[in-house]
Amino acid sequence: MTAASPTPPFRPRYWRLWWKFVTVSLSREMIFRWNFLVEVITTCFWMSAQLLLFEVIYSKVPRIQDWSRSEYFGFMATGMLINGFVEMLFMPNCANFSEQIRTGNLDFALVKPVDSQFFVSFQTVDLSSLVQCILSLGLLTYSLVTSGVTLTVGSVLMYTFLVVVAVAFFYSMMIALASAAVFMGRNQGLYDFWFYVTSFARYPGDMYRQGWAGEIFWFGFSFLIPILLVVTIPSRMVLQKTLSPHPGVILIVPAMTAISLWGARRVFQWALSHYRSASS
To answer: How far apart are CA 88 and CA 164, in angstroms?
Structure first.
């Protein structure tokens, strides 16, 4: 089976195809309304539990590092927003990739007259995760108001750009790990690894800078694999906090994300070049 076709250009037909994926996913969600409702309730419960946890913590201490209660809620909202988009757009597709390989359904995806990576990555949209994105924006608004931050058009645009970059970075990690299913058949262990690693991004990067071991951990997950930076930097920027360790660090995030996307693309193509179809 050949590798994926060249990277798809930004053509209207790809946008139309993606919108068709959205409408089909919406129809599927409406067929199983109770499942959709349970997922929404679960999301609300999880977010409420996170807020309650830090309400209790901040009732005992005024600040954690240089993060006040309102500022930390802004960081939390940014992380939840990024995670919501990743789970809505990519998680169900990457999780289903190994199943497509096992059942042979990947054959049908590879013969479609569109880019294979596009089709594999976007064919399902988890609309229940949209609720998490909406609630995250509400929490972010609360954080900005209570922190006394005055937004400008430039800061809103920059924040939006950095959130998109963060989503793209996590997607590159996810599609690269999903590609391993071509060789492993099942890659649940790799997904567990992805969840464990990305869980570090639930806390601001500077919280890990305690002792020499913490400094090494912070450096590795900031400048080698920028999991900490992609969430911390947009949070600090929109809250008008000093960018640590230097304002120029904001340029590292899009640069490393571009490299990560390029690498994930190469991994995906390499994996497909070793794929043996169900009919072969």
So the answer is: 13
Q: Is residue 65 part of a domain?
A: yes
Q: Say what the pLDDT of residue 3 is.
A: 47
For residue 95, is it within any domain? yes
pTM here is 0.88
- Given CA atoms 240, 242, 244, 249 in this order, what sign does their dihedral have? positive
- The ranges of the chain with pLDDT < 50 are 1-4
- Say how far apart CA 64 and CA 78 lie, in whole Å: 17
Type and span of the H or E element at 68: strand 67-68
Q: How far apart are CA 180 and CA 61, in angstroms?
A: 44
Domain of residue 116, residue span: 12-273
* Torsion, CA 143, CA 146, CA 148, CA 149, rounded to 10: 10
Number of domains forming the structure of the chain: 1
Q: Is residue 55, in this structure, part of any structural domain at all?
A: yes
- Whether 3 is in a domain gets the answer no
Helix locations, the chain, DSSP H:
12-31, 33-58, 69-89, 91-103, 106-110, 116-122, 129-147, 153-179, 181-184, 188-198, 211-219, 229-238, 252-273
Beta bridge partner(s), residue 272: none
Q: What is the pLDDT of residues 121-168, one digit of tens each?
A: 998 888 888 999 999 999 999 999 999 888 889 999 999 999 999 999
Beta pairing partners, 64? 67
Strand partners, 67: 64
